[in-house]
Amino acid sequence: MIGIFDSGIGGLTTCRALKQLLPGHEMIYFGDTARTPYGSKSRETVVRYSLENTRFLLDMGAEMIVVGCNTASSVAPAAIREAFDVPVFEVVTPAVEQALAASKKGQIGVIGTRGTIASRVYETRIKEMRPTASVHSNPCPLLVPLVEEGWFDRPETRRIVKSYIHPLRVRQIDTLILGCTHYPMLEPIIKQKAGKRVSIINSGAAVARQVKAYVDAHPEWRDKGGSEGCDRFYVSDYTPQFRSIAESILNQKVELQLVQQ
């Protein structure tokens, strides 16, 4: 069983990508909706939350952990791997690899929460792999609340996205990493504001391909496919809005179970 956690609803875009690539593998999802967003929290707090989330997923039967949150992926994977003996995947590295493969000019933009951008994790990874690349980052603190509210196509959302993307467009980026798994829900607007020549990198989809490659390379994980069990979805705070958005992301009925962290 594959366990995925995020600070809220955004990691469901990662779950959707995993379900498309690995049909038959059971998924268990935890959205820490009571403590979202993680982007404004300290590094120590995000690491603590991530360890608690991982322990919950493992206790519920997960045998692999996908950190479907860019903020947590930027600071917590080492601590998770040290504490738990299971495969752990994060969204940053595969997104960087895909961005470098897509970028012809080496002008790469990154948008994310304040925590993700402040960590400079994307810039560091990109520079490690291609020292000549130029990285232009911009924090977008209002986008997660907009997604959590379901404001996917409001005029206000379009104006806010434009204001965040404009400084990167001026830099003539040719590739843009969506450094938050909430952002694919706004991808049509982001694509429009960035320009049709800019390649958009979805970090959740990128990690799903990495997990698929891992499963294909390990027979013991291939054998876990074909299950007819139900996926399970847990949240630390329930709202009808979350359920409605979750169902629109996954295109299926979703039963949310409330748990206390």
From TrEMBL:
The keyword Cell wall biogenesis/degradation applies. The active site is at C69 (proton donor/acceptor), C180 (proton donor/acceptor). Substrate binds at D6, S7, Y38, G39, N70, T71, T181, H182. Its EC number is 5.1.1.3. It holds the Pfam family Asp_Glu_race. GO terms for biological process: cell wall organization; peptidoglycan biosynthetic process; regulation of cell shape. One of its GO terms (molecular function) is glutamate racemase activity. InterPro entries: Asp/Glu/hydantoin_racemase, Asp/Glu_race, Asp/Glu_racemase_AS_1, Asp/Glu_racemase_AS_2, Glu_race. It comes from the Bacteria. Keywords: Cell shape, Cell wall biogenesis/degradation, Isomerase, Peptidoglycan synthesis. It catalyses: L-glutamate = D-glutamate. Pathway: Cell wall biogenesis; peptidoglycan biosynthesis. Provides the (R)-glutamate required for cell wall biosynthesis. Belongs to the aspartate/glutamate racemases family. PANTHER family: GLUTAMATE RACEMASE. This is Glutamate racemase. It comes from Desulfoluna spongiiphila. The gene is murI.
